[in-house]
Amino acid sequence: MRKEIRFTLNEKAVTLEVEGDRRLLWVLRTDLGLTGAKYGCGEGRCGACTVLVDDAAVRSCTYSIARAAGRHVTTIEGLATDGELHPVQSAFVAEGAVQCGFCTPGLILSAVSLLRRRPHPTEEEVRQGLDQNLCRCGAHLRIVRAVQAAGEEMARHAEGGTGR
Amino acid sequence: MKEESFLALDFHDLEVSFPVTRRDFLRFAGGGIFVFVSFGELPFGQGQRGVGQELPADFNAFLRIGADGRVACFTGKIEMGQGIVTSLAQMLAEELALPLDSVDMVMGDTDLCPWDMGTFGSMSTRFFGPPLRQAAAEARAVLIELAAAALARAPQELVAAAGAVHVAGAPEERVTYAALAAGQRIARRVDGRVPLAAPSSFTVIGAPALRADAAAKVTGQALYAADIRLPGMLYARLLRPPAHGAELEAVDTAAAKAISGVTVVEEGELVAALAPDPETAERALERIVARWSTPAPGLTDATIFAHLAENAPPGEVADEAGDLAAGAALAALTVERRYENAYVAHAALEPHAALARVEDGAVTIWASTQAPFRLRAEAAEVLGLAEERVRVVAPFVGGGFGGKTHNSQAIEAVRLARVAGRPVQVAWTREEEFFLDTFRPAALVDIRAGVTAEGRISFWDYSVLGAGERGSRQFYAIPHHRTLIRGEGWRGASRLHPFATGAWRAPANNTNTFGRESHIDELAAAARIDPLEFRRRNLEDARMRRVLDAAATAFGAPFAPAPSGRGFGIACGIDAGTYVTLMAAVDVERETGEVRVRRVVCAQDMGLVINPAGARMQVEGCITMGLGYALSEEVRFASGRILDRNFDTYRLPRISEVPALETVLIEAGDQPPQGGGEPAIVGMGAVIANAVFDATGARLLRLPMTPERVRAAMT
Known about the structure:
The complex is a heterodimer. Chain A is α+β, with helices and mostly antiparallel strands. Chain A has 5 helices and 5 strands, in the order E-E-H-E-E-E-H-H-H-H. In chain A, helix 2 packs across helix 5. In chain B, strand 3, helix 2 and strand 4 form a beta-alpha-beta unit. The chains are: A alpha+beta, B alpha+beta.
């Protein structure tokens, strides 16, 4: 049944008239034209579709649009602010943690969520925290390094009072 | 895009519908200096489209220096993560004395780029790189000629630097490339007479460069085939058989058609539900009721190896020397083994996708493909159109590994778009991806070899079945040897294999190197010589010795005759002209049989390294991906049904499982560049099998080395 669903998407209010059981991934990609979240497996097993709902990394391929009502949804398109890359994005570039790039948006958003929970993760915590995100090109170690580097960078900014 | 061809050099009246391309494209509009490059294979019997009278037809890439001073390279190669969008640009920047960010790569668009055979086989840098550098050197020579006229100087007084030509010793007396190219319309082709920049003067080649596409990829701006949107497009979901070999006996689409907005297409075996969004299409597909024939009980992943052995064709000798019987007579000990590897999937994170638009007899296809020109030919044939009517655009490709040289998703999209009269997207689900993939073939390697009392290999009788030839030739100093290739390998395979097989990152070489390097260790262990010393004693090839020594130095820990209990392994290999040695350290959990790889060291001689940062990423990618086929990846099947359909049972290497990695790139700048995207993966099966043997004394003869198999081998 179609119903009106309101939520915040990348800091902007959105009102949709959709079937509530539709998946967030397809609403984003098809209705809203935001294709940064990727379809990789459709069962929440690869992480390519990951977006943030409030601060939590969720698998948008299994997340119904109805559950997003009243929440803040952040996709990869909304992570950079005022044209400035988020520290996790910058670190992925600097560490060479990107190859084909298909897993990248989901990994970055998973990492942002992880760093919000654990600002100074150990290497092991990063590895465990991102273990449900698949990367086929094999950028794994660089991804871990990028997330740790981003954590340090964010901590420096936070100490300087300009944290995000 | 209409009739106009990419060779209408002023580009003004081109109509490009894809906005990103259009914007990029308009930057290249205007005149300029063009240099045409030929390399490798050219399209046989078909001229380049729209060839003008004054331009050559036999080329497969070109450069353009525009009035904006930027250099654009037009090539049918595609970027799928391997990094040539950066490394090819580095070669151009070097020869043209330009900053790297002044180079634009225009790739994989059949209307903008000249014909190309496809992107595979680690060939872009090896075979395309040298002529591309030559073209850039040629362009630099043209610029210097023009500058000589503009500055009223002799060419030999002039130097190219930072996008301008200036008088040597008088940098202020200069003219920019932009000024030189403005209003020009000069076409040259490479004749090889202009000297290349000397390696000692390199500033861009050999300097690590960040990926040119990274910013687009971390912001979600990079578009992949499934991200392309056109007004009025429909999303398709296709009816698939439950098993290979099942035939459609009856189909009822009434319930699907009853859903508002849904169109059902039935064209022979092609049955699809089309809808304005993918979920509605999926819902409609679920309501299509189909009856399929049940294929006769057939092969399974457990019976496949016996089947291969029983159906083995006699084979062809790929390499031989000496006399096997004479070599056997010299042997103090002989070891005979059979090595096996399972089918594995490409499992790129991006499933195959395509969007097709068929309009007024002209077709545009955006596809995740490694071979846009091959797809263009296939689509033209299916539609009965001339190739000129078909344009294929390969946007960013989300991983290929050989799997995207097959483009059936795009042909499906074209057929559906023709019937629907609207653009149609076909994006395979992960389950379809596992069902329709062209797997790396299951294969067998049989080796019988002997060692003299002095620890030298006296004979080597080798046969590989079902995988193919690449990497099968041994490179040790063995006086009596023979290498036999049986079966069609990964290319054809329909007679030996129950479903399609195809090229998988370093095709055949993973299988061959697993067999060869496992057996070298078996011989070393039988002779009670440590595997490093044994290889040194039997290797004369100076390049491989150097790579082996470099790996040993980086690895640090000494080897001992296996099994030493420490879990150290070695494997050597040659692929795409590159020499590789891997060394690994593993732990084996005795109760569970689980193998934990602690550390992998890779030493690699790939000749001149264009982008060391990119090369290291490829080595790390190879090692990480290779952990999968070594330890966990295996496609299970029964009577045509594919039992692994998603990442729950088909286990890719995870972030928590990756060992410490060290890469040593051998200085070999005086040698031509060799392949980088595949070589380091070929030894991953053997290096871990050898390390497991060193840890436990158990020899794993089949890949993947699952905990069950390791446990079984230990008892």
